[in-house]
């Protein structure tokens, strides 16, 4: 539900290690709401959501503290979530996301794509078996960064992780996976 409006009824879906599910549907169908419910940020109106692996959610908003550097934002997030926040680990993740050149600037001066790369870098700080919940992850990325994201998703899936992503754009197209299509609410 969103507000007092039921978005989806009778939804059932299962995933296993190494699988990607792409969420499709028109705007307002509940893709973001579903991801937020799976992440534990919203309560489902009925039913049960069960997940026995760690979950990392990257939503629409990049959730970066504007006055803090990208490096500090990543370290803060890692510490808050109980992940490795050591400087060398943060530096490696920044390098993986081609974010080293702007990592020490305050987030408020960064472009949309740069902020998005920092937000997505959080995924690399979590456990290899995590379920990544991604809400329009390619938004703001140039073609090179979008290719990096696809490769990152591929490595995560190959390592036994899982991905559920709401997207209107092609995402990790070389990896087979399921599609969950949500219908517009009645």
Could you characterize the architecture of this molecule?
The protein is of the alpha/beta class and 186 residues long. The chain has one domain (20-181): P-loop containing nucleotide triphosphate hydrolases (Rossmann fold, 3-Layer(aba) Sandwich), CATH 3.40.50. The protein contains five helices and five strands; from the N terminus they run βαβαααβαββ. The chain has helices spanning 31-38, 70-80, 87-96, 112-121, 143-158; strands spanning 20-24, 55-58, 131-135, 162-166, 178-181. Strands 2-3-4-1-5 form a five-stranded parallel sheet, sandwiched between helices. The longest helix has 16 residues, at 143-158. The chain starts with 19 loop residues before the first strand and ends in a 5-residue tail after the last strand. 35% of the residues are buried. The model has no long low-confidence stretch (mean pLDDT 90).
Could you describe the largest sheet, including whether it forms a barrel? 5 strands, parallel
The helix/strand class is alpha/beta
Number of domains: 1
Give the C-alpha Rg.
Answer: 16 Å
Q: Under the CATH scheme, which architecture would be assigned?
A: 3-Layer(aba) Sandwich
The residue ranges in which pLDDT falls below 50 over 5 or more consecutive positions are: none
Calculate the mean pLDDT score and round it.
90
Helix content: 25-40%
N-to-C order of helices and strands: EHEHHHEHEE
**What coarse outline follows from CA principal-axis ratios?**
globular
């Amino acid at each position: 539900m969103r507000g007092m409006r039921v978005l989806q009824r009778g939804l059932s879906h299962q995933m296993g290690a190494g699988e990607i599910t792409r969420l499709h549907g028109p705007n307002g169908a509940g893709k973001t709401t579903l991801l937020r419910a799976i992440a534990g940020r919203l309560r489902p109106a009925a039913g049960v959501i069960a997940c026995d692996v760690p979950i990392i959610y990257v939503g629409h908003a990049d959730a970066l503290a504007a006055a803090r550097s990208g490096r500090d934002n990543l370290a803060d997030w890692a510490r808050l979530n109980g992940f490795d926040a050591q400087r060398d680990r943060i530096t490696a993740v920044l390098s993986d996301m081609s974010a080293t050149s702007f990592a020490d600037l305050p987030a408020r001066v960064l472009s949309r794509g740069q902020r998005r790369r920092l937000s997505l870098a959080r995924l690399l700080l979590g456990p290899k078996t995590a379920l990544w919940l991604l809400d329009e992850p390619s938004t703001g990325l140039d073609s090179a960064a979008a290719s990096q994201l696809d490769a990152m998703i591929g490595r995560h899936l190959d390592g036994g992780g899982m991905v559920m992503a709401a997207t209107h754009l092609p995402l990790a197209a070389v990896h087979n996976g399921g599609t969950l299509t949500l219908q517009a609410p009645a």
